[in-house]
Amino acid sequence: MDGAEFSNRDFEDFCISNNLTVDSTCGKKKLYEYVSSFEKLKLKVREAEENGLDSDTAFAKEFSSYRSKEAAPYLTDSAYYDRMAHSMFQEAVDQAGVDGYAEIAIIMLSPESRSDKDLKRNEFFADSVHAALKNGANFADYARRLSSDATREKGGYYGRVQRSDFQDKIVSDIIFALDESELSEPIPLYGGSFLIVYCITRVRFDSFEKHAPSIYSFMEQNGYREKAIEEKGKNLIRENGWSNLTPQQAIAREDSLLEDKYPDFRRLVSVYYDGLLMYKISQQELWDKIRTDTVGLVGYFDKHIKDYEYPEPAFQGFLIKCQDAQQFDSICNCLDLCRTQLDLKKLILANNLISTECQIIEGPFVKGKNAHVDNLVYGSPEAKPEKRYPYINVYGKMSRYPQYYEVKQQVFIDYQNYLENKWVKELKSRYHSKIVKKSLKAFLCR
Predict the structure, then answer these.
(1) How many C-beta neighbours within 10 Å does residue 314 have?
(2) What pTM was estimated for this model as a whole?
(3) 51, 215, 238, 288: which has the highest count of C-beta atoms within 10 A?
(4) For the chain, how long is the longest CA-to-CA vector?
(5) pLDDT at 446
């Protein structure tokens, strides 16, 4: 193609990336369909390059970003990166234990005195406060008004705690049994006080897998990836004897070799490069133009109208239903003035005929779609009368072919395919594309 050659490997990469089987099981006909698709892709890519889209700043940025993302695992010491992640998790476990952390708010309810009467009263009061909170009372408001603890000024907010923060094992057991957004029962304390705890957030360190996504996300945002890349660079220096290179230079050299060393990476990057250029050139030369080419679309429809022929002739027009005989006569008397369906639409709008007293339904109507049309147009038995609309008529004609608006979506697709085939033919002629058929026989022998 235009002096450039594409090998069987290029074609096979294309097939693998598109889940196409290329061996003796696919057959000669199917193989040449794959080749045709490959040829079209490369022609469009060649045209995009000729138009300078491959050097466009936006393209270069998008492609570079994709390639860097896909290259990252090959340029990172994954084992080292994973060890760092597990180490961070273990540090958290060592510090807080498997119970982890709880962020809590509290209400401390203390008796006025140590008398039996006040102790009993405070116990009853704690139960009533707990019941109100369970029924939706605002925890912060109750804390500010009722709590005897200093945290009342902050609506009871206590902060983040871990099990080692508590000397009382009963209290810590209750708190660390709570789930996020859960309220504790009143907890009895020394001196007759009661503690009510609301768990705002809850973090348990029971398994690495559960926290792995957030750990790796934290590492990505805080430069840990760069450390693993540097470690990979050191490994490359040792493995390849690149003692004259720094870790950064070793990474750069390895990056330049990825396409040759790793077929899967080469395929990913190649497919993305071709696909992105094909998308951009197709958008520029085809899709954007078709969207505004109403004349071309209608012209294509008129020229190929037989391609959209109904399976059976259909009635194109309107079903007119009225409550009032006078309004019905007024509409019917005007029908003779209408030469086209557009005329009837204008008539309806001009006379404000669409109302609760008048219903006008636009077709097309195939036989069996509407009982009244079947009766008035197709000669079927009389339809069941409608109480709301006793006056019924039709306006229109029988036709073998649809109106443009009926098949607009399909026309758009067909017109696009027509222009694309025409465009590809021009590209093939311009870039002198040729398939060396002998080279393809190897696939059919496998």
Answers:
(1) 22
(2) 0.65
(3) 215
(4) 105
(5) 65
Indicate the SS3 state at residue 200.
strand
Q: Structure tokens of 18? A: 């598109």
Per-residue confidence (pLDDT) for residue 335, from 0 to 100? 73
Token pair, residue 119, equals: 């102790």
Contact 304, 91 (CB under 8 A): no
Percentage, residues of the chain above pLDDT 70 = 96
Residue 386: count of CB within 10 angstroms of its CB: 14
Q: Which of these, 354, 355, 373, 372, lies nearest to 364 by C-alpha position? A: 373
Separation of first and last alpha carbons in the chain: 26
H-helix or E-strand containing 108?
strand 101-109
Q: What is the pLDDT of residues 90-119, one digit of tens each?
A: 999 998 888 999 999 999 999 999 999 999
Q: How far is CA 142 from the centre of its chain?
A: 44
Taking 3-state DSSP, the helix, strand and coil percentages for the chain, each rounded to the nearest 5, stand at: 60, 10, 25
Burial of residue 358, with CB atoms counted within 10 A of its CB: 0-12 exposed, 13-18 middle, 19 or more buried: buried
d(CA 338, CA 321): 18
Number of H helices, E strands in the chain: 18, 7
Span 203-217, mean pLDDT?
Answer: 93
pLDDT at 405 over 80: yes
CB-CB contact of 427 with 44 (8 Å): yes
Cα separation, 440 vs 446, in Å, equals 11
Residue 341: its pLDDT value, please?
60
Which residue, 15, 36, 40, 39, is CA-closest to 25?
15
| φ and ψ at residue 138, rounded to 5 degrees | -75, 120
Q: Pick the closest to residue 428 from 41, 126, 13, 16 (CA basis).
A: 41
